[in-house]
Amino acid sequence: MEFGEIAVNTAIGAILAHSVQLDGQRFAKGRVLSAGDIAALQQAGIAQVVAARLTPDDMPEDEAAAALAHAAAGTGVDCAAPFTGRANLSAACDGLALVDTVALDRFNMLESLTIATTVAPFEPVVAGQMIATVKIIPFAAPRAAVARGETLLRELQAGLLQVAPWRAQKVGLVSTFLPDGKQSLLEKNRKGLEGRLAALGRHAIVERRCPHKVADVAAEITALRDAGCSLICLFGASAIVDRRDVLPAAIAQAGGAIEHFGMPVDPGNLLLLGRHGEVPVIGLPGCARSPKLNGFDWVLQRLVAGLRVRAEDIMKMGGGGLLKEIVSRPQPRAGGKTVVRKAPKIAAIILAAGQSRRMGAVNKLLTEIDGEPLIARIVRAVVESKAGPIVLVTGHEADRVRAAVADFPLTLVHNRDYADGLSGSLKAGLSALGAGVDGAIICLGDMPELRADHLARLIAAFDPEEGREICVPTFEGKRGNPVLFGRRFFPEMMQVSGDVGARHLIGEYAEAVCEVPSPDRSIFLDLDTPEALAAYRNNSTS
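The structure corresponding to this sequence follows.
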């Protein structure tokens, strides 16, 4: 990569290394300078800029980030579209994050390529939660380095990052009692296990109660295994203090084996790991009655995620294993809840209410492109993106438009005042969005070349924490459609009137605007007239 100060009149195609503020306009770093940009810089009297030029040996940062993110993603992991050399990875389901830390360290030894995780190995995650990011150190990476990184990642049989989903379990529970024991303690045993399992998906509990005697416990273990339980938990009336104590002896008498006693996690030291055939049998420490985090949680999470827990796994849990609250350190449970960063929930509003006046007698949304109604073509692209929920606003010839998109998962909203202009459809679409939406992409219904990746780029760029709340696609420095607006602009969008949308907000909130480069001119193409439709069809078939 060539880097340094270059003359503006030779900078077409160069990547701006530092932001440049013009009168009423800001060129952000990373902008690929177009002919129009050069003219604007020259008009502002700027003769030189600091910029980078890629050589054939360089791979553009977004291309490199996308390639490495897909190579790193294993089962249960989704990749977002790249933006500014960053591609985020998120959990595709609720489950347990699996991270190959040895391979992660090896990868990060490659200069200019980085992967950072937001989670530790075996940490519970929820669907949509960001778990890692691939970041290319600007503005490109050597192709040879990217190739080495891809090779390293693809050699991993399971992937650098995985999410093992929670699997429904039939869980057996044996609670023992002593002659003078309290029944309330047995109820506490069940509630403690129910509470833990409730956070890990849907599971069935088969409970048995018996005296705290070896033969009785052994019989219940066998009965639960024969009943099809995939996990058996033993709550003793008295804590396990030795491998020869009642509960481990009962596992052995039932035909099982003791794999490990004790664990380097506190609370949870007295956990017992056993097995009856292929069924794990866990002797629970007394702290498992409490809802507070303890060593049993770490074991249970792995088992519910379908992972085999061995003695060596238990013995490696010492790192971070001191969970007990003690006076000499901060109280981890005293503060608020842990904040989980999730990918933003971006809706899409498709405006399909117009009368197509400039098209004449033909409803342009229903005209066929490659054998499919134009509106169905638009909807398909939106559905294939990561946007959701999707709201389609109808008006003119609503029944015919609804019929054309009947096979898609949409929320349909009718704008009775569609003849009054675009603003009514915009407000109808916004009103149909739920409270959990972080932003919305406003899509026109007549853009035949709209693709899922156009929307994915906008979603990847959206980040209110970094000031990117209005994401606008650009090609060669010119802005197009669709546009993504953050939720904080919805109240102002609800105030528009007449045949106008919300594009005025782009000028009013320049500091919140993020220009997202498009790979092609599709962001400008719409079909408003018979001539435009004919030209498009001719170009498509030529």
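The CA atoms of residues 75 and 277 lie 28 Å apart.
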